[in-house]
Amino acid sequence: MTQYIIRRLIYSIFIIWGCATIVFFMLRLVPGDPVSAMLGIEYTPEAAAQLRENLGLDQPIYVQYVKWMGNVLHGDLGKSIDTRESVTDQILSAFPKTLSITILGFIIGAVVALPMGILAGLRRDSVFDWIASTSTFVGISLPTFWFGIVFILIFAVEFRWLPSVGYVSPKDGLWPWFSHLILPGLAAGVGEAAILMRFVRAGLLETMGSDYIRTARAKGLPSSKIIFTHAMRNSMIPVVTVAGLSIAGLLGGLVITETVFSISGIGRLLTVAIFAKDYPIVQGVILLITLFFVLANLAVDILYTFLDPRIRYG
Amino acid sequence: MMSEDLGRVASLSGKFSRRTVLRGLAAGGTAGVLAGLLAACGGSSSTPTAASSTGGGTAASGASTSTTTSSASTTTTTTGAGTPSTGGSSATPAGTAATSATQAPKGKQGGTLTMGYNVQQLLQLDPARISTGRVAGELLPQICSALVQFDDKLNVIPDLAEKWEISDDGLTYTFHIRTGLKFHDGAPCTAQDFVYTYNRTLDPKLASPHANKLKSITKAEAPDDQTFVLTFSAPFAPFLPTTCTRGPGRALTPVSKTSMEKMGNDESLLKPVGCGPFKLVLDSMNSQSGFTMEAFDDYYGGRPLLDKIVVKFIPEPASQVNALAAGDIDMFNEIPPQGYAQLQGNDKVTVEKIHGTNWIAAQFNTARPPFNNQDARMAAAKGIDRDKFIKTALFGLAEPSVGAIAPAFGWATQTEADLKEDPQKYDEAAAKQLAESSGLTKVKPVLLASASDHRNEDEYRNQLLKIGVDCNLTLLQDSDFNDRWQKGDYDVAIQGSVVDADPDDNDYNFFYPDGPWNTGKWNRPEAKALLDDERASTDQAKRAKDFQDLQDLARKEAAFGFLYHAYFLPGYQTYVKGLPKVPEIFYMETVWLDK
Questions:
Q1: Closest CB to B312 among A165, A259, A272
Q2: Rounded to an integer, what distance in angstroms lies between the CA atom of residue A142 and that of residue A255?
Q3: Would you call A80 an interface residue with chain B, using a CB distance cutoff of 8 Å?
Q4: Is the pLDDT of residue A41 over 70?
Q5: Is A163 in contact with B480 (Cβ distance < 8 A)?
Q6: First to last CA, chain A
């Protein structure tokens, strides 16, 4: 197992390097000029030429690549072309915000999805199953921003219970921090819950029809033991797969939630940088997201071995 | 040169748009230049000086009309005469100490104001490098004072310079700097700092987009700590409003040499250390979420009333409206037009509706077919029903435009009623005939648009369809848009200018034959002569005439198809008091919270 993990980590380095390299060159193939975006209508050829020189954008692409990669290997992700802020600082500032929403969204999703998915799976074709399936359908179909705006209108504008925009650091108080996360967490959690619930229900339905469950019933085991000890464990494999990937996906995929709630997280950082052609930021964030996907995949694979002892890695 | 395209502004600041983003600068103070050249302001314009009687201060500038609307009350106030000054040019021009900034502001002291601000990411806050006019007009003035500023009647009044003189030939400006000024880092602010700022803006390594505003200055000197002297190679009439005002005058807005050099060009891009009423909390700056400013105890005009201003960036229109309605923010810099009606019905919120300093039009590329044909351009101009355009694209929150002079420049602006004849007046039948005869109906002109916001272009295209012209709507990311527009790789683009400090601020760039924004290549010697003349003129009435003649020519030849002037729409909770109604500029030292 240890050898397997080490091997996977070594592979991961190549995956991350490959992604970083592809992104580096593809960004520069896209039409548009970061200097032009920066200067806007105040653009003059002289100011643009000077700015390109200042930013090193007048050098050949391969020189820029070698310099950037060299800096990355030394732990320096560079500076934003637009704001000259350190990319590392930008990521470190945005990451806790997105991670907070991601974790809260996932917890909300799991808390809703697990019991509802289990009940729906156990009471197939019942009214509850119908309600749960319809809710799932609605949760998946309606966009996150719709939920976000509805939550804001109800809980912030109408009742004024919770703040509608922004993020507060936990250093400024746990309740202010948490209160600013509730609505974005809920908005992100709805979709998460819907997806997870579908997998829990489907997984449980499949498992409950298995021979070993019938055997367990025949042996006279109590239902609770059959469900929670035997059925749940096996039906969790697809759930863990989806959960792992969606946690990683949320990292860069919360741009809508972050925009609606005006939270400057990783998703917004990436999107704004893409539109502004702020290469160093895009490259830095992609590195982070790739790292997360790779680690999430690895974690999922390792979790498999705990859920199903038959799975062994050599 | 506070101009900029509304659309691009939008793009730089978020996806909301050329309608929602109107900011800027105050207009009119044009007078400024002539500030002194005119011994007396035209009749009804207010004199900016109170204490002293040594000079006329500024020329009258634009009329500024503001309408304040809340569910509780609606009031309309018209300020400013809007009459061009006609003072004799032989008088020694001078500006003298203003009252507003030197008297302690009145109101309740204390409290924190949270200001929502429409921007995706703040790109710059160093005055010499700010490329977004509305940031210069709305955020910068809190942190950085300048030589002069605007009053709410759009006159140029003293700020850090308590008075100034302009030589008879208009080639020498002498500013008398207040004593005892301090930067936020504690360093004294003297005339030497203005010389430093002048040299800094011109430093090629800084790549300031405003360096060109200083190109006609041949010498900047500080004979003593309180005297700053500029020598010009040629008269430059709009110099004061465009280059020296608090907010728009980014090229000469002083920053602390000590702090800026300590930080270096990278860090100082977002962290200016100036001598304005509020001090930027350096560690609070986050280009994507906002920043905090604290009252500056040593501000020369007295400590501002608010203790603190927290700026939160809110890029999404629905969130902007909801945040104000929910009371999460005390103020928003500009209400999105789509949220205007909702907030009007909220008795806890006040929404201003102020004439802006902007104009928006269809810019035609006259260097290539089909719009190298004047009939084709005129067809595309006459085919637009401006009233319907404003209603559809801007929720009615704009005024029809007949030229490139914003309503805030009351001394020069024109409405349709002022014209003997508007050759671009909406006439569907005539437009259709011109479109057919010019062959415009047989081609698909490329209409450039920003992918993030193309409501203007959608409406423009829809209206042209009625006269048989089908534009090829080309949606681009903003950087690509800028590239293509600057290269002239388009047939028509909805462009214009916001946050101007003087009509010259944009007209020169758009209409001068080699103007940087004349990407449609409309090249007329008459336009060059008129612009050269207004720059050299010391007579504000003559300048107004030059600008108006220029618009006549542009209308007649359909260099642009003029569309609208959008309103400036700041909104705030009713307990927020004391905000001066300067078009597209915020001066927050007098703001207080009545709660």
A1: A165
A2: 16
A3: yes
A4: no
A5: no
A6: 6
- pLDDT per residue as tens digits for the range B245-302: 999 899 999 999 999 999 999 999 999 999 999 999 999 999 999 999 999 999 999 9
The Cα–Cα gap between A146 and A154 comes to: 12
Asked if B491 and B379 touch (Cβ cutoff 8 Å), the reply is: no
Q: What angle do CA B360, B364, B369 make, to 5 degrees?
A: 165
Cβ contact (<8 Å) for B287 and A80?
Answer: yes
3-state secondary structure (DSSP) of residue B498: coil
- Chain B residue with CA closest to A148: the answer is B319
Least confident of B82-86, B161-165, B226-230: B82-86
Report long-range pairs for B197-206 (Cβ below 8 Å, ≥24 apart). B197/B128, B197/B252, B197/B253, B197/B254, B197/B255, B198/B230, B198/B252, B200/B128, B200/B255, B200/B260, B201/B128, B201/B251, B201/B252, B204/A50, B205/A50, B205/A54, B205/B265, B206/B128, B206/B129, B206/B265
HSE toward the beta carbon, residue A187, CA cutoff 13 A? 28
Sign of CA dihedral B272, B500, B479, A272: positive
Supply the pLDDT for residue A4. 83
Nearest to B549 by CA among B534, B539, B536, B567: B534
Cβ <8 Å between B131 and A277: no
Q: Is the peptide bond before B525 cis (omega within 30 degrees of 0)?
A: no
Decide if B479 and A37 are in contact by the 8 Å CB cutoff: yes
Mean pLDDT for B223-236 is 96
Report residue B256 as tokens.
Answer: 């602390």
**ipTM associated with this complex:** 0.83
Residue among B121, B477, B517 whose CB faces A32 most closely:
B477
| Interface size between A and B, measured as CB pairs under 8 A | 154
Could you tell me which residue, A181 or A234, shows the higher pLDDT?
A: A181
Chain B residues closer than 8 Å to A85 by CB: 270, 287
Beta bridge partners of B568: B354
Span B367-391, pLDDT tens digits: 999 999 999 999 999 999 999 999 9
Helix axes A279-307, A61-73, angle to 10 degrees: 50
A31: contact with B, CB 8 A cutoff? yes
Contact A259 B316 (CB under 8 A): yes
Are residues A163 and B326, on separate chains, in Cβ contact within 8 Å? yes
Nearest chain B CA: its distance from A244 CA (Å): 28
Answer whether B287 sits within 8 Å of A276, measured CB to CB: no
- Would you list the DSSP string of A167-192? ---GGG-HHHHHHHHHHHHHHHHHHH
Question: Which of B212, B315, B322 minimises the CB distance to A157?
Answer: B322
User: If we measure between CA atoms, which residue out of B213, B274, B264 comes closest to residue B238?
Assistant: B213
Task: Give me the mean pLDDT over the B59-80 stretch.
Answer: 34
Give the integer Cα–Cα distance in Å for A125 and B421. 75
Bridge partners of B66, per DSSP, are B77, B354
> In this complex, which of A37, A40, A268 lies closest to B4 when CB atoms are compared?
A40
- Cα dist. B184→B136, B158, B272, B274, B275 in Å? 19, 20, 10, 6, 6
From chain B, the residues in CB contact with A156 under 8 A are 322, 326, 328
Question: How far is CA B236 from each of CA B30, B202, B216, B222, rounded to the nearest angstrom?
Answer: 12, 18, 8, 21
pTM for the model: 0.82
From chain A residues 165-204, the ones with a CB under 8 A of any chain B CB are 165-167
Nearest CB to B517; choose among A41, A153, A269: A41
> Cα–chain-centroid distance for residue B524?
26
Q: Which residue has the tokens 């105040």?
A: A42
Mean pLDDT (whole number) for B231-258: 94
Residue B485 tokens, joined: 């527009």
CB contact under 8 A, B131 and A82: no
Kindly determine whether residue A40 and residue B124, on different chains, have CB atoms separated by under 8 Å: no
At residue B56, the 3 state secondary structure works out as coil
Closest Cα to residue A69, out of A284, A289, A294? A284
